[in-house]
Amino acid sequence: MQFVRHLEIHQEEETHPEAPAQHPEAPTQHPEAPAQHPEAPAQHPEAPAPHPEAPVQHAEAPTQHAAQKRVTWSIVYLGMMVGAFFWGGLSDRAGRRQILLISLSVNGFFAFLSSFVQGYSMFLFCRMVSGFGIGGAVPIVFSFFAEVLAREKRGEHLSWLCMFWMIGGIYASAMAWAIIPHYGQTLGGEG
């Protein structure tokens, strides 16, 4: 019976409007202050209030920016996927060396052009065509390299080629981490 009475008291405290909803030592909110969203971080009591004429930040901006970054990165891989099918089949018919030079030229030209375009859609187009050229270069390089290797060392040397390709990717990422935080905004014109 004592247990049932304890449950009744506990339920009464939860539903009673005058009962404190917080721990007794927790800071209370001023009665006239607006209610804070439950997922929003608590503001420091000494922090200044935002200026009434400050520009309003919309929640869609970071999401849209993140989506643009994902599209910018994935469009290159889309071009690579299509380019591998196109250039791979063409290199079997027209010769690997000639098609490798053409696909690398396509990659280089459109990668260079993408640094000068003004619009986002034109930038995406140039990056996709650049990826189309990369898609031809990668499988052709592996096939071309395998043709000139001795049979007993072919697997080892192809593994070395793959490894140095990954080391190059890590090196490029490390250089971006080193350069962009120091020079990224000044090079981008945002001062």
UniProtKB/TrEMBL annotation:
Domain Major facilitator superfamily (MFS) profile: 1-191
Signal peptide: none
Transmembrane segments: 71-90, 99-116, 122-146, 158-180
Stored Pfam families: Sugar_tr
Coiled coil location: none
Comp. bias intervals (Low complexity): 18-46
Region Disordered: start-end pairs: 1-63
Subcellular location: Membrane
Recorded GO MF terms: transmembrane transporter activity
PROSITE patterns: MFS (PS50850), SUGAR_TRANSPORT_2 (PS00217)
Keywords assigned by UniProt, alphabetized: Membrane, Transmembrane, Transmembrane helix, Transport
GO cellular component, one term: synaptic vesicle membrane
UniProt feature, compositional bias: Basic and acidic residues: 1-17
InterPro entries: MFS_dom, MFS_sugar_transport-like, MFS_trans_sf, Sugar_transporter_CS
Aminoacyl-tRNA synthetase in keyword set: no
Record has Transport as a keyword: yes
Superkingdom of the source species: Eukaryota
Major place of residence: membrane
Membrane topology (UniProt): Multi-pass membrane protein
Family according to the record: Belongs to the major facilitator superfamily.
Record's protein name: Major facilitator superfamily (MFS) profile domain-containing protein
Biological source species: Knipowitschia caucasica (Caucasian dwarf goby)
